[in-house]
Amino acid sequence: MIIVMKPTSTEAELANVEKKIKNAGLKTHLSVGDDRTIVGVIGDKKIIANLEMNMMPGVEKTVRITEKYKIVSREFHPEDSVIDVAGVPVGGKHLAIMAGPCAVESVEQLEEAAEAVAKGGAQFLRGGAFKPRTSPYDFQGLAEQGLKMLRTAADHNGLKVVTEIVDKDDMDLIGEYADIYQVGARNMQNFQLLKALGKAKKPVMLKRGLSATIREWLNAAEYIAAGGNENIILCERGIRTYETFTRNTLDLSAVAAIKELSHLPIIVDPSHGTGRWEMVRPMARAAVAAGCDGLIIEVHPHPEVALSDGDQSLTPKNFNALMDEVRQFGALMGKTL
Amino acid sequence: MIIVMKPTSTEAELANVEKKIKNAGLKTHLSVGDDRTIVGVIGDKKIIANLEMNMMPGVEKTVRITEKYKIVSREFHPEDSVIDVAGVPVGGKHLAIMAGPCAVESVEQLEEAAEAVAKGGAQFLRGGAFKPRTSPYDFQGLAEQGLKMLRTAADHNGLKVVTEIVDKDDMDLIGEYADIYQVGARNMQNFQLLKALGKAKKPVMLKRGLSATIREWLNAAEYIAAGGNENIILCERGIRTYETFTRNTLDLSAVAAIKELSHLPIIVDPSHGTGRWEMVRPMARAAVAAGCDGLIIEVHPHPEVALSDGDQSLTPKNFNALMDEVRQFGALMGKTL
Amino acid sequence: MIIVMKPTSTEAELANVEKKIKNAGLKTHLSVGDDRTIVGVIGDKKIIANLEMNMMPGVEKTVRITEKYKIVSREFHPEDSVIDVAGVPVGGKHLAIMAGPCAVESVEQLEEAAEAVAKGGAQFLRGGAFKPRTSPYDFQGLAEQGLKMLRTAADHNGLKVVTEIVDKDDMDLIGEYADIYQVGARNMQNFQLLKALGKAKKPVMLKRGLSATIREWLNAAEYIAAGGNENIILCERGIRTYETFTRNTLDLSAVAAIKELSHLPIIVDPSHGTGRWEMVRPMARAAVAAGCDGLIIEVHPHPEVALSDGDQSLTPKNFNALMDEVRQFGALMGKTL
Amino acid sequence: MIIVMKPTSTEAELANVEKKIKNAGLKTHLSVGDDRTIVGVIGDKKIIANLEMNMMPGVEKTVRITEKYKIVSREFHPEDSVIDVAGVPVGGKHLAIMAGPCAVESVEQLEEAAEAVAKGGAQFLRGGAFKPRTSPYDFQGLAEQGLKMLRTAADHNGLKVVTEIVDKDDMDLIGEYADIYQVGARNMQNFQLLKALGKAKKPVMLKRGLSATIREWLNAAEYIAAGGNENIILCERGIRTYETFTRNTLDLSAVAAIKELSHLPIIVDPSHGTGRWEMVRPMARAAVAAGCDGLIIEVHPHPEVALSDGDQSLTPKNFNALMDEVRQFGALMGKTL
Predict the structure, then answer these.
(1) Which chain C residues are closer than 8 Å to D219 by Cβ?
(2) Where are the beta strands (DSSP E) in chain D?
């Protein structure tokens, strides 16, 4: 931590600042400039992390130097992590494709969707059995019945299952049917859920919050890792901005940022990221070119009758066209399905 | 719902759109313009709410006319609601003042804080026993021990208790000690928690999410109301913007907006809203002038040693000065403590 | 400036960094921590301002300590500035009220509006003769004809004139008729216009840009001041956020921030800030309570027929009601019209 | 335009609304729902564009259906436009690469940069002779001297010149030396500059404003087109969000959006879009994969000594590596340099 003193601060104020730091078991290092004195704080990071100095008289501002996340940082683990999902690798030289409907609606819908995405080349079936919806009057999902349908349709087609968890009480139930727990954007800082998933035996895919900074996102991942579960996949799904043409603003620079800051694999969701099916294909290509480790795509056999998010779902035909391109762009990136 | 057809749409596409609407048990009303046909959808709002039309061929866009929240809307309940919190009214002609430290740290800290805020005129003691923190390595609160300290210090000073709930499993425990359940910004769309609180016997204060729209906020409140608990207090605490001088951007126009759209009382949190203690006082005055029903203020007997959020906490002396002004501005608004 | 070295940086990299700083005529001050070395840069601020260190090998990040604006800063001029606008003071113990239609439309409209706002207590007539409009096909203003109408209607009612300048070539022309040049949000960083106004003989009101930080805003004001014109009034008019219920998000914390950072007076525009006439009154009260030095309000004798921004204009009757409240809240703040 | 009446509106209010519309020479079409009446407005788009209905008693809200821009819309011109820049095509099957330093600093710097970018495959030399800087005390550019250096260095290496215009008075001067006028983000809504460029004989590259919507951007382009100059290239350069890790958030979905809404070519600026040189390469690849028509990249022979924006500049070596990838990804998109 660096403490910038006010130009008007007194020697007594500076002495108090130094005293507080020393009392905490830390050391100081002074840098006296023409109009401001700057105090560097040196010592145990955990103690520094809890040091509150801004309220001290004479202090203008403080600057924190080190990040609090550790297990998920690239500093801690320089090589890319590859997560093993029931035998399917996510990360490294692989492109993981997760596809399927937004919500599980019926056996027919799901079987049709699963067959289509498997043919297209996806390794994972996605689908929501528990849906976090803005309004209490919206369709909330089929719960365990939906999970069963997911598992069955996935098994029929050689796919793994990724599905959202919205309640820690459902952890065992979902764990019976799914291969990856998905944490949605609205729950990215639901710390109780993250702590519970830190004890889970299966991988977790953590979506970025609606307006989460990259730093907050990695700290959220650290909650899971700190609990003992280091099988974490990140998922960029668009952030909230002032632009209204798209549902969210897909932040592909987050892919490059995560690759610099962390060793975890990162998946991109161009369906929620744009909210418009016509934009899913160009954004999927761009995500692969940016260096992501996979995609999660909404595919619905009949998007015009979907119970939710029909606007952003691809038809199986469009999904196939997208996959052809993903293979080509993936090859240039040295990644294969 | 209004459906805008593309200028290039065909008669067959229009016929399909009309057919889908009629099949759902709804009626259409056509408006044929020079270059676009517009289809109005008439009928049961709940059915319309689930109608997905954007994927239909020939459709340019759809516009939803009615909001999904109902119980919390002013249309449904034209008069201002006054919430009874263990005998203390919140809403209407009253100004509710909630004050205390960010986190409960010790008996001494809390007793000192409770005495100070009671003297200043607050009716509620605030303090976190369960803290949702960005990093897993930050102080997470004293849990039940903290709740007990809160209740004791509040009782010693004739105050009611408001404290944050972060886990639905804690509902009974917190209900034993607190008078209001506070839902923090990060949990505004933790729908499982909201559903649980819909069954609670005590009032809920729902903070606006970091980047929640007013519409999403009211829908979140509707989750609680739909469960049977209509004792809801809203709390504006700043939204996330690009500005970095303040911790958040306190959106006081939300006060006026809520007064127009809803009958629920709304409290303002200038401490989190600005993140700078020097700005708490002007923003508290402004919030009262905007028409809010109360304030929640961080007060710490010794903010320079606080374990969290010291930068935004007032000393008891500054809190008293603030309360003098709040009384004067409240009087102009026809509101008393 | 503070330079944070990477944990992996070498001694040679550090030596290079120090060398570059010394070659620029500056001094360094090292602070060696457990995992990072921090280099403080000491010396002439202007040289430091142009120092680029981030690209140097071994550098993790740099932190700038001092702001670049100077003449407009409170450090430079601790007392509040009071701007004399043709005999009417803006700032200090005064509340300046600027009111009138968005655009000058006709003699009748303007005379009616001027009479109404003067009766209500405004000292300034506002109205646009040159309108910066999003679309080239929107009404662009009456130009000189509009300026004449403004001057005449203002003189008939003992008002001063504030009107927008969108082109530096119009500086003399507008200067003939107006008392304050208004720079609109879209032109806040039109540096050519700002430089020209630095040579103007009349005060300038500088609106905050759509997404300008407070720091950028003060730097824009510094452009005018650096040119020699220190008669600058700032105007908060709402910033762009994701919220769609209001046209912009009126950032009243900017009032408190400006009071801390600068000596310049600050006016608030609740009409553009909210875009909804029903919200103008509560936000005007809140602005006064936050400590602003005045308001600029859209008033139109017949808002339902206005050529632009009718949605956010008050009728004369509503303006009078607002002014009654402004006087009361102003009195509490020690400010009079 | 669609007008939604309040549920509480009266027949008299509805009659007034209809009367106003008919008086404007337009027709109405009523749609009477269970709780709201909706009025469609039919007729001349230009008249509708200026109709203000929100203030009418009984009106809840209005929805505008058609966009105001026309010449730049894809509806108006379904094929992609290819802009001829002194013999070099921009748009269609071509990838235009513009590269060079942020600011022109010296003959040596520029000659070295021009040679490097030409070798790498760029067709355009970029460089600022007039710099719009946040602070008046920052380096403002070499003006005409810089333009001459640009032209000379470009000619020596067979490149075209793109450079920023910040003042309409410089139009002729810049036109003598440059091949494309660049309008910077801060000037996107400097309508006087846009109108002047509508009369220019050379193409204009219009950068997206810091927080401009796609709709505002296309309307700004329409200003240039409406003046007679249809040789417009758009440039996405990142938008302002809450994220601080990157300088801006590069919005690559804007590429797909522009391709849907407009026939104009679109260039992407990953240097300003990210503000970090390490991220330029992945974002350049992603931009090409998203379907852009070219890139503008900051290249500096010695970024560590650059007078501005050194942090985001590539070395010639990194630029070459980037170009190798751009060629490969461009080939997949059917585009060549």
Answers:
(1) 134-136
(2) 2-5, 27-32, 37-42, 59-63, 83-85, 88-90, 96-100, 124-126, 160-164, 180-183, 204-207, 232-236, 266-268, 294-298
Q: Where is C14: in which H helix or E strand?
A: helix C11-23
> Quick check: C177 pLDDT over 90?
yes
Q: How large is the angle between the packed helices B214-226 and B253-261, nearest 10 degrees?
A: 50
The pLDDT value recorded for residue C140 is 87
At position B310, the amino acid (one-letter code) is G
Preferred mutation among A208, A247, A253, A285 to probe D, highest tally of D CBs within 10 A: A253
Residue-wise pLDDT for D270-316, tens only, equals: 999 999 999 999 999 999 999 999 999 999 998 877 766 778 899 99
| Spatial separation of the C-alpha atoms in residues B310 and B313, rounded to whole Å | 5
In the numeric block, which tokens belong to residue B303? 């903010």
- Would you state the structure tokens that stand for residue B16, as one six-digit string? 């399909």
CB–CB of C234/C266 below 8 Å? yes
Distance from C-alpha of B49 to C-alpha of B24, rounded to nearest angstrom: 11
Sorted by sequence, the CB contacts under 8 Å of residue A292 that are 6+ apart come out as: A236, A255, A266, A267, A268
* C-alpha to C-alpha distance for A184 and A164, rounded to whole angstroms: 7
| CA dist., res. C149 & res. C258, Å (int) | 34
What pLDDT, in 10s, does the model give residues B283-308?
999 999 999 999 999 999 988 777 66
C192/D54 touch (CB, cutoff 8 Å), yes or no: no
- What does the pLDDT look like over B9-54, one tens digit per residue? 899 999 999 998 998 889 888 888 777 888 888 888 778 877 878 7
Q: How far is B59 from chain D (nearest CA, A)?
A: 13
The tokens of B332 are what? 């102009």
Compute the half-sphere exposure of residue D205: CA atoms within 13 Å on the CB side of its CA.
Answer: 29
Cα D213 from chain centre: 11
Using a CB-CB cut-off of 8 Å, the residues of chain C touching B274 are: 253, 256
B285 vs B95: CA distance, rounded Å: 12
d(CA D150, CA B272): 51
Give the tens place of pLDDT for each residue, D18-61: 998 998 889 888 888 777 888 888 888 778 877 878 778 888 88
- Residue keyed to tokens 């779902």: A313
For residue A59, CA distances in Å to A52, A62, C28, C166 come to 11, 8, 22, 42
Per-residue tokens: A41: 């704080």
Of D208, D204, D151, D199, nearest to D182 by C-alpha is D204
